[in-house]
TrEMBL record:
One GO cellular component, as annotated: plasma membrane
Residues covered by the Tripartite ATP-independent periplasmic transporters DctQ component domain: 106-237
Topology term for the membrane: Multi-pass membrane protein
Record-linked PANTHER family: 2,3-DIKETO-L-GULONATE TRAP TRANSPORTER SMALL PERMEASE PROTEIN YIAM (PTHR35011), SLL1102 PROTEIN (PTHR35011:SF4)
Entry annotated with the keyword Transmembrane: yes
UniProt keywords, alphabetically: Cell inner membrane, Cell membrane, Membrane, Transmembrane, Transmembrane helix, Transport
Protein name: TRAP transporter small permease protein
């Protein structure tokens, strides 16, 4: 049954799900151990040298996120269109990673609020960690928006064009995206590599390597966005002309859920 609803994993769906559960359980168990181990704190989590338990925890956490992203990307959301190319798979996996990142940010901020106001023991790392995660979240969300074709587009003029002119406009848009990508990589490559090689830190008490990780990630993601834009262009090339209206923005599923909620409240 699961294989019938699989988007792309097919027979690998169950092994990926088992790996997700296994590594998630291992990560939780190791995290609980580290929480009650007073000699290891968040300072050591980004400086794991000489602490094998921290390294194992980080590897387990990374694998849990990877397999969770793979497994969750194998389900198509109610408002998500069918994937149109092989590169869409990478974008969908990154989108699920971004969705998981939101949950992690919420957990981090909840921990900070409880520590600060319930126990009068604010952390030195929650703000930096949430900024760190949010930086990757926003970039991956941009890649997902491109794959879903949900980025800002103005259809007033586009819809009245003949199909050949629409194709020309799409080609121009993708060309400009690639020009911007090339300029950004050309101008920022050396700086990004320099920051990454020395793992430049943020300069705070916790001192995470935000510049050393975020700057290279910006170049990587903008390149992925450009590739996704080209993939969209190829996939949409032979499509029939589309006409858009405000009704396209209506989420029928969301309206149905609201209607059911209102009916339940009346009862």
């Amino acid at each position: 049954m699961e294989q019938q609803h699989s988007v792309w994993l097919g027979s690998l769906r169950k092994p990926v799900r088992a790996a997700m559960i296994g590594f998630s359980g291992l990560t939780i168990a190791l995290s609980i151990y580290l929480i009650f181990n007073s000699s290891i704190g968040m300072h050591e989590m980004i400086r794991p040298q000489g602490k094998p338990i921290v390294i194992v925890t980080l590897i387990s956490f990374a694998l849990a996120l990877l397999f969770a992203s793979l497994y969750l990307s194998d389900d198509r959301g109610l408002i998500e269109p069918e994937r149109t190319g092989p590169f869409d798979i990478l974008s969908l996996v990154c989108s699920r990673l971004a969705m998981l990142s939101i949950a992690i940010v919420v957990i981090v901020m909840f921990y900070e609020v409880v520590s600060r106001y319930a126990f009068n023991a604010p952390t030195m790392w929650a703000n930096e960690l949430s900024l760190w995660i949010a930086a990757f979240l926003f970039m991956l969300a941009g890649l997902y928006a491109m794959q879903q074709r949900s980025h800002i587009r103005i259809y007033v003029i586009y819809d009245i064009m003949p199909r050949w002119m629409q194709k020309a406009s799409d080609c121009m848009s993708v060309f400009l995206i690639w020009v911007f990508t090339a300029c950004l990589i050309y101008g920022g490559y050396n700086d990004a590599v320099r920051r990454m090689l020395r793992m430049e830190t943020f300069g705070t008490a916790w001192d995470p390597p935000l510049p050393g990780t975020v700057k290279p990630m910006i170049l990587i993601v903008i390149l992925l966005v450009a590739i996704q834009a080209l993939s969209n262009l190829i996939a949409d090339w032979n499509k029939a002309p589309e006409h858009h209206s405000p009704a396209d923005e209506i989420d029928e599923h969301e309206i149905e859920l609201i209607r059911r909620t209102l009916e339940q409240d009346k009862k």
